[in-house]
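lol ok so funny story. i was supposed to be doing the assay writeup but got distracted and ended up predicting the structure for this chain instead. priorities right. anyway since i did it might as well share w the group, maybe its usefull for someone
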Amino acid sequence: MKFRALNQKIILIMFIMGLVSLGSGCATVHGPANEADPIESYNRAMFSFNEGFYDYVLDPVVGAYETITPDVVQTGVTNFFSHIDDILVMSNSLLQFKVQDFLHTFMRFVFNTFFGFFGLIDVASHMGLPKLNEDFGQTMGTWGVPSGPYFVLPFLGPSSVRDTFGNLADWEYIDPINLHLDDEKTQYGLIGLKAIDTRKGLLSINRVVSKATIDKYAFVRDAYLQRRKYLVYDGNPPREKPNFEPSSQEDLDLEDALEQELLK
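and the output, tada:
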């Protein structure tokens, strides 16, 4: 089954790369090209597709989930997936030789497992062990692997070439949902529930951005790339001269507010 799943992932990568080639070759974007986004035509088309999927499929499901599910259960679901993610954080902390961060997350995982009912309650954060953020995309960044072009994934949204392969590596070699669950129905159920929980956490930001920005695509792209650079450099990225000027003080205020939300 694992071999079949791996083949399916390879086929998916080839299909996505084919879409990239097709999109970049069949459409153009007016105006100066963004160096970080050389396939902007494809990315904008996929961004529009994803927005339609979110508006008409995923967001109604999230709304129903929020309506029928008690708040305490929703919090438990969020904590559970954060608990699983700590396994990825520990692994990538070691790969980056961040021993202190590994020990921090290891203790967090132990406390939440034994005193938080297997992660359903986040007791560790109240004990001075806040959640850290590490993944294999960040690990490759610390190794010197460049981000590569910005890349909007079908259904999943903003990414880059490096982060796309980083996410696949995390899923294939570290994520316990993939490695230790042989029942496909349970696996797909957890993946779907995680997608709902993740989208639920982004809805408030999405509403603000939709109302306050003229070009939502460009705003999301720039916020994503800035956040990933912030994470790779542990909050101290090298300063670069910006290649654009905000049009107003409102844009500056909105960018600062969104950055604070993303970096929580």
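The longest helix spans residues 40-68. Residues 2-262 form one domain.
back to the writeup now i swear
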